[in-house]
Structures are given as structure tokens and as C-alpha cells.
């Protein structure tokens, strides 16, 4: 047995485990299936690699514990699923192989079955839900399997797959609820215990969909190192395993969220739940924003981009430590289960990662509709880096501004900025909307909108090198022009150039003077200034 951790474990959120907190003896197995034997004899390395256990240096330093990532994203199909699929299909008789196989999967099990079928020379048909990422669909086809897209979620695809299996006499390959699939996934646990180079291992965090991975890992680890905690992670909108363990049996949830598509399962496996009920110590629930933050954390330490389900275990580990700040100097492993994500999702992940990490704040600010107040707002936010400012003239006395900026300690930093804003007078006010879902999902893109009160407005688009202080310099130049700003939108998108859309009130008599002002801006070194007053987007949507 390894050394004891220097902290006391918190009470499990699973009621049936709360009374077993001090148990460290290997649990007695009364099972027909000898999972220890199955796992140790699993045939996986014909197609799978022994993946590394990577020390996350930056994350460990930040969280005050030793954090290791089990890199299943480095498998040939960028997911652990090839282990269980191949182990199951290797056991088929020649007659069963000749019949062909089928499976239902959101993508990673599908790739595992397709890879195993390719290796073993078996015909494979894969049922995938219509939301399956294109990168997974194309890889299944590349491996030689036939793909049928069906249903709005995994469970609908599975029902259709079972129907076709009976009709066509195919052998159905379960995604998780099968002893050989569970045993194949359990080899991840074998490798973790062999690879860890510490005098102790406190806990392994594992994502949960149907439950094959966590049931396999826990069935092995609890027999060999029973003191090691096994902690499952669900999303709030796909918490089938959590609900099942609370109920003591497999429970079908009404709907499963689609962001972490690899764990989007409404009904966990019956056998998986039975094993997890015996071996899993605790569960953690996380949000999609926390997953995005964990994806960024993984990238910062490894320069690899996980899919949402692949980062779910790390998100759970971080949430667990945030909820239990007394835990320090722990030794934890998070299984990075996969990296099959469409490239076009990266923008959403990058936007939400800051919110999930607590490194961006979003405010709704009420300020007087007088020249210079927008710049005063920027100065109140300074020295924090402003990531977005959106404003539209709509009232002659007051204005609402959407403002976002980077923070290191969100609560403390927002409190200071809020105090500075409110100190400017009774006609200034501010609301923290950092956790407002409407603001994060839609509001930041729609802030501004139409205005029926603006007259003599011209619209210009500005592009300039986005160095520290560049936005404040730009706003200072606008202020020198003495033109009333009627629309303003700036958003930092991580590029080297800052982009501002600004509406300015210019009476017809001042147009010649204004053209000279624009020329002065160009001479100040701005790379691009384009008038958009006649742009149909402006005409149709902003006035």
C-alpha cells in the first residue's frame, strides 16, 4: 500500500459511498466475471499504443498538487475506444466474423470498431447519430466501414442498430456494456499504475458516458491499489451515470447534452453501473465552460487539443479541487480520453474557456450619454486588458455599454472595477453579467443594434496593430476629433490586428473638416480605415 495523502477526503456526493470513506481494503468480488483476469489477458496492443502519463507542469503549479494526464488522445484513432472494440472483436468466432459486425456510436467507438474490423478483415456497418462530428464520420469511412447516420442521439442510433443487426444477422459490438469491452478499457488502469512514479496515487478522474472506461479502470485499480480513489465526471446536462449511481441502478435521463458528444449517453450500461456502484468512490458534475477551460489547460501544458469529452476528466479534477481548497500536495491522474473534434468548434471553445477559467469578466455598464464617457469607462477598467466594448446611441441622456476584460481573480477584480465605475456619480451603474448565459451566448454578439434617434451618422471601420495600450490610444484620437461617438464595437480575437467599428455624428457642414480628421488618423499609423456608411449591413441592421 502506498503512503497516505496529507489531507482528509471530503464526503462523497454518492450517498451509498459516504459510509465507506475509510475503506481501503480490496473489495471482495462475488462476480461471475473475473475482471482482473479479463483485463490482464485483454488483447489490445495489436491496434492500441501504451500511451504516456504526462506531468502537467503548469497546471500542477497552479493547483498546488501533482497533476498527470493519461494521454489516450495519442492512440491511432485519437481515443481509448480502440482498446475495448478490438478486445471484443478478437474474441469472435470465425463464424461470427464472417457474418459481419455493427455498432452504434457518436464517433470514437465507431472508429475503434472500424479499426478493429480493418485489422481483422471483418465487414463493419456503423450507426452514428446525425450530430456526430464530421471528423469522426470521415475517419470511420477512411478505415473502410459503412456509415449510416441515424437519430438525434446515441440511444436512438443504438435502437436502429439493434434492429438492423437482427434483420441482417450482424454481430452487435456494444460501445460499453460488455465484459470484453470493459476489460479492454481497463488496460488504461493497468498502465496508469505501472507508469506512476510517485510514492502514492490519491485519485484517478475518469469521464463517464456509458461507463465502459470508468468501470474497467476501477475494476482493476480497486483490486490492486484499493486506496486509490476513482472519481467519475459527468456534465450537468449528461449526468446519466451520476443519476444511476444515486438510484442504485441504470437510469435513463430524458435528454443528453451534445457539447461533450463522446459522453452524450442517456442510458449508461447495466453492467457498467453495477461495477461503478461497487468501485467508484465519487462523482463530479461540471459545466461546458469548465470543459472549455480544461481544454485550454491541456493545450497550455501539452500543445494538444482535446475534444470536449476528452477534457471532461480534467474539468472534474479542477472542480473537485476548487470545491475542496484544503486539498494540497495531492497526486492525481485525469484520463485525457480523446481528441476528435471538428476544427470549426475551436472558436466557441476559445470564447468560453476564459469564462470557464474565471479569467474574463463581462459587465453591463450604464453611463451618461455625454462625450468622453466611453473613454472614462476604459480608464476605470484599466489596467485590465479590454477584450470587448460594444455601444450604440439610443437615448439622449444615458447609454448602456457591453464591456469585457481579462482578470486574474474575477471576484476581487470585478469588485474593484465596479467600485471605480460607481464612484463616478449617481448616473453611473454596473451589473456583473459574467455568468449570464444569454450574455455569453448571444448578448455579446447583438449588443448595440439599431438606433432610430441618430442623425448625420457616418460609419467607419478601423484596423490597427493591437499592442498593449493601442485601444486607449485610438479612443484618445477619436476624442480629439470632438465628434460624438454614436456606435462603438471592439473585440479582441487573438490576432495581431485590432478591429474597431465606430459611428460618428458629423453634420453636413463639418464633412470637409471630418475628412481632414480621417486623414490625420491615417498619418498616425493606422493600417486601414474604410468608410462603411453605404454598406447594406449597416443600412439594414444598424439604423
TrEMBL record:
PANTHER family: THREONINE DEHYDRATASE, MITOCHONDRIAL (PTHR48078:SF11), THREONINE DEHYDRATASE, MITOCHONDRIAL-RELATED (PTHR48078)
Annotated EC: 4.3.1.19
Gene3D superfamilies the UniProt entry points to: 3.40.50.1100, Biosynthetic Threonine Deaminase, Domain 3 (3.40.1020.10)
InterPro entries xrefs: ACT-like_dom_sf (IPR045865), Ser/Thr_Dehydratase (IPR050147), TD_ACT-like (IPR001721), TD_ACT-like_sf (IPR038110), Thr_deHydtase_biosynth (IPR005787), TrpB-like_PALP (IPR001926), TrpB-like_PALP_sf (IPR036052)
Reactions that this protein is recorded to catalyse: L-threonine = 2-oxobutanoate + NH4(+)
A GO molecular-function annotation: threonine deaminase activity
NCBIfam families, per database record: ilvA_2Cterm (TIGR01124), PRK09224.1 (NF006674)
UniProt cofactor(s): pyridoxal 5'-phosphate
Sequence ranges assigned to domain ACT-like in this UniProt record: 458-533
Pathway of action: Amino-acid biosynthesis; L-isoleucine biosynthesis; 2-oxobutanoate from L-threonine: step 1/1
Superkingdom of the organism of origin: Eukaryota
Similarity annotation: Belongs to the serine/threonine dehydratase family.
Gene source species: Batrachochytrium dendrobatidis (strain JAM81 / FGSC 10211) (Frog chytrid fungus)
Keyword terms: Amino-acid biosynthesis, Branched-chain amino acid biosynthesis, Isoleucine biosynthesis, Lyase, Pyridoxal phosphate, Repeat
Protein's UniProt name: Threonine dehydratase
BP GO annotations: isoleucine biosynthetic process
